[in-house]
Amino acid sequence: MSARVARTHPLKAVGAMAAALGLSAVGAQNASAQQQSASPLLQGLMRNDVRAARYATPDGAVRFVFDRSGGRAALVQFEGDPEVHVLRPVAGTRGDEIYRTEDGGVMLRVTPHGGITVYTRANRTGAPVSEVAAAAPIAPPRAAPQLYQARMRQVQVGLARAVGRPVAFEAPAAVTGYEGLFLDAAERVAQGVAAVPEAGIRRVIIAAGPEPGVAVRGDTLLVVIAPQMGYAGRPSSSTVRAVLSGETAGPER
Predict the structure, then answer these.
(1) Model-level pTM?
(2) Which residue from 167, 190, 202, 230 puts its CA 20 to 30 A from 68's CA?
């Protein structure tokens, strides 16, 4: 198969696609109201006065970095897993903060005293974790601009092998400063598509816009990335999988 990444306009807001995905911007007034009604822990998160740290279960079977150092979205990356998970905090009982994934699953619970419980597929009832070391904030990887398109083609080729048919990728030709984020997004998209091969996707269009989103149009998967939002501006593999399987219309922000 001849791998190809079609050229589109770099980092141009794709108005038509954003409209097709039903994307909407969040107003400053709503953000202000959310901050005023947030719990003390969530307000601390929004003030950027909490840091990133590495945590582990007592037996060391689960290790991860939990980054609450910036914005209202927290980031988690498990040891051995290339995907960075974007979590949104919501108020729980007894003053706890519940950190949920894009699809609503509970991944972490933080008590007012700082105790943390992690929930995984292997342990859905939760396991306590403790901090083992400080960690650098999780940031999108850097990628050389001259290698960006070549690596995008590699993602396309890998996906074609996984689903057993050609899948054309169309992505911005240049995304100066955001190459790593777009490549990570492409990998998450490929991961989600490979998990639902019966969806029959033969074309993936990745574009930049003001809000992230995912939609299916026939055999085409439309993906909008909001690069200024970092990891929170790209869909997770579970969101792509859910959209393709008809479980949801796309990530809710």
Answers:
(1) 0.78
(2) 190
